[in-house]
């Protein structure tokens, strides 16, 4: 199953048991048995040209930072609060860079991705619960992609929203078609789509001409004012730092055969951080552009009353109509193309995140088209119901709810990541520095505190204005606060539970290879092949001379 020739005959469900058992029993070996697959080979020599071999995973991950969920929350943030919430985007982007770099380092250093570490470290019940939460995060991420693509089709071809929701199921076929061309070409396609989206919104930004001093103030002066600002801030956080991205990034880096020396690992971690910084900077500029465009347009003096009313309840569909009236007819089409590119590219990354989550937690895999179909079906059902009953406005609200769910679920991926990357028994000399540990735990604590604060205040407000009888309010309050206590207790369990499994970094000097069926160099941990990456139809190996 390592090449296109066998793609048609591979089973729909696969487990990773049964090959090269002598390489899978030690504490420092991957949980997935090694097989011979083609990967992108990183040369041992020290050269800045190696950076080009690492470019790719960061752009795949960055798509999640500019998906339709981000578009929706950015537009509402700009329309309702102008530039006041830009600082959330700045903090979330900086936090995302640090967190994504940790996820990449975990995969590079240990040869295993985050979901695999969770399966090895936690008891079966805990592992199963974490898997369910991770799957819900993948579905919650797919909902904005479904609705966003439906909005784009509505803007471009006047297709009803509910029909567009059904049509998005066909993206499975597009994903299956793209698979045969290999991960490298897929990465280039994603990078092209990212720059297409950036170009679209930078052009919009040039025409809307936001006040630069107000934009700078919004970036560097934190403030949350007005009803609903906290909820929207949480949505922005959830749309920027997604839990499934941590699983995805830690797995995508395994598509490179990194030299298993101390220097090779350090170089890989450094280059992945540089690549992630570049990709996330592009995503940051796109998000800033969207909020600035929305804020500038909705605060303009020449808006008529109807458009001003639309700004008070702005969604992706209305945003196009509003921009068309203010900025010209071509602007609506540009926005639609950017939205369509965002939705379709996010589908690809969401599918692979779901693949790695299922394989890592359960040691079970589906063929990508079946995995995509399952996730997309679970996302289509609520999207279709909401769009039929409530129309585009309700569908837009569903995107905000999905983004908030992602924020609430983030601690269940972030805490294990911070625990694992801070552990010397897992990362060895590559463990987090004290500064990085303090910084990342501060970021995680901030996200958890703001989530819990919003849950408590929103639930109390809901009870007080629900119109229920006193007895009903009491029982609802008991069950509601019991659920919050369970949520808090689950996070505290992950925080204070000590790591019990020792999985030291994979180094050439630590590996006991000696597989009788392999010649020297084959099966080496320096060319660590991974079964869970092979389904991406990896390209043939490139020798070091190709990089000269």
Could you provide a short overview of the structure?
The protein has helices at residues 51-54, 57-62, 68-81, 86-110, 114-121, 124-157, 161-167, 171-179, 183-208, 212-220, 229-240, 243-252, 262-298, 305-312, 316-327, 329-362, 368-409, 411-421, 424-427, 434-464, 470-496, 531-534; strands at residues 13-14, 40-41, 256-257, 365-366.
Textual characterization of the structure:
By secondary structure, the protein is an all-alpha fold. It has a single domain, classed as Amino acid/polyamine transporter I, CATH 1.20.1740. The chain is 68% helix and 1% strand. The strands form 2 sheets. The chain has a two-stranded antiparallel sheet with strand order 1-4. A two-stranded parallel ribbon has the order 2-3. Helix 11 (229-240) packs antiparallel against helix 17. The chain is globular, with a radius of gyration of 23 Å. The chain starts with 12 loop residues before the first strand and ends in a 14-residue tail after the last helix. The relative contact order is 0.20. One of its GO terms (biological process) is intracellular iron ion homeostasis. One of its GO terms (cellular component) is plasma membrane. Belongs to the NRAMP (TC 2.A.55) family. The chain crosses the membrane at residues 51-66, 86-108, 128-153, 159-178, 190-208, 228-255, 276-297, 334-353, 373-392, 398-418, 438-462, 474-496. InterPro entries: NRAMP_fam (IPR001046).
């Amino acid at each position: 199953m390592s090449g296109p020739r066998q793609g048609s005959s591979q089973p729909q469900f696969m487990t990773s048991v049964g090959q090269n058992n002598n390489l899978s029993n030690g504490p420092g070996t991957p949980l997935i048995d090694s097989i011979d697959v083609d990967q992108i080979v990183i040369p041992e020599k020290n050269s800045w040209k190696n950076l080009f071999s690492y470019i790719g995973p960061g752009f795949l991950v960055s798509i999640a930072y500019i998906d339709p969920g981000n578009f929706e929350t950015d537009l509402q943030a700009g329309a309702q609060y102008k530039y006041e919430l830009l600082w959330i985007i700045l903090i979330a982007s900086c936090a995302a860079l640090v967190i994504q770099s940790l996820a990449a380092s975990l995969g590079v250093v240990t040869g295993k991705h985050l979901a695999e570490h969770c399966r090895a470290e936690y008891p079966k019940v805990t592992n199963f619960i974490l898997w369910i939460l991770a799957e819900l995060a993948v579905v919650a991420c797919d909902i904005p992609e479904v609705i966003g693509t439906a909005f784009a089709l509505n803007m471009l071809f006047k297709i009803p929203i509910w029909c567009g929701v059904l049509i998005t199921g066909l993206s499975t076929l597009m994903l299956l078609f793209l698979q045969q061309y290999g991960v490298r070409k897929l990465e280039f396609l994603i990078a092209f789509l990212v720059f297409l989206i950036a170009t679209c919104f930078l052009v919009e930004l040039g025409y809307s001409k936001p006040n630069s001093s107000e934009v700078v103030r919004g970036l560097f002066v934190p403030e949350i004012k007005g009803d609903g600002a906290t909820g929207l801030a949480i949505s922005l956080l959830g749309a920027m730092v997604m839990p499934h991205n941590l699983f995805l990034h830690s797995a995508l880096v395994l598509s490179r055969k990194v030299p298993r020396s101390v220097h090779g690992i350090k170089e890989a971690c450094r280059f992945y951080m540089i690549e992630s910084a570049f990709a996330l900077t592009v995503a940051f500029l796109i998000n800033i552009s969207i909020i600035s465009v929305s804020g500038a347009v909705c605060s303009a003096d020449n808006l008529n009353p109807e458009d001003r009313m639309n700004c008070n309840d702005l969604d992706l569909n209305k945003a196009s109509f509003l921009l068309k009236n203010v900025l010209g007819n071509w602007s609506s089409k540009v926005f639609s193309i950017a939205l369509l590119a965002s939705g379709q590219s996010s589908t690809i990354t969401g599918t692979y995140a779901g693949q790695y989550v299922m394989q890592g937690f359960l040691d079970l895999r589906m063929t990508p088209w079946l995995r995509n179909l399952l996730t997309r079906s679970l996302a289509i059902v609520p999207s279709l119901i909401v769009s039929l009953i409530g129309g585009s406005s309700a569908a837009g609200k569903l995107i905000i709810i999905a983004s908030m769910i992602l924020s609430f679920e983030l601690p269940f991926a972030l805490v294990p990541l911070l625990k694992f990357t801070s552990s010397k028994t897992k990362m060895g000399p590559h463990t987090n520095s004290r500064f990085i540990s303090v910084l990342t735990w501060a970021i995680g604590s901030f996200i958890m505190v703001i989530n819990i604060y919003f849950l408590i205040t929103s639930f109390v407000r809901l009870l007080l204005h629900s119109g229920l009888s006193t007895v009903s309010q009491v029982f609802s309050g008991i069950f509601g606060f019991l659920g919050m206590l369970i949520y808090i207790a689950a996070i505290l369990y992950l925080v204070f539970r000590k790591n019990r499994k020792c999985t030291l970094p994979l180094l050439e000097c630590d590996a006991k290879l000696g597989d009788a069926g392999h010649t020297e160099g084959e099966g080496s941990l320096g060319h660590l092949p991974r079964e869970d990456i092979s389904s991406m139809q990896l390209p043939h190996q490139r020798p070091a001379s190709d990089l000269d």
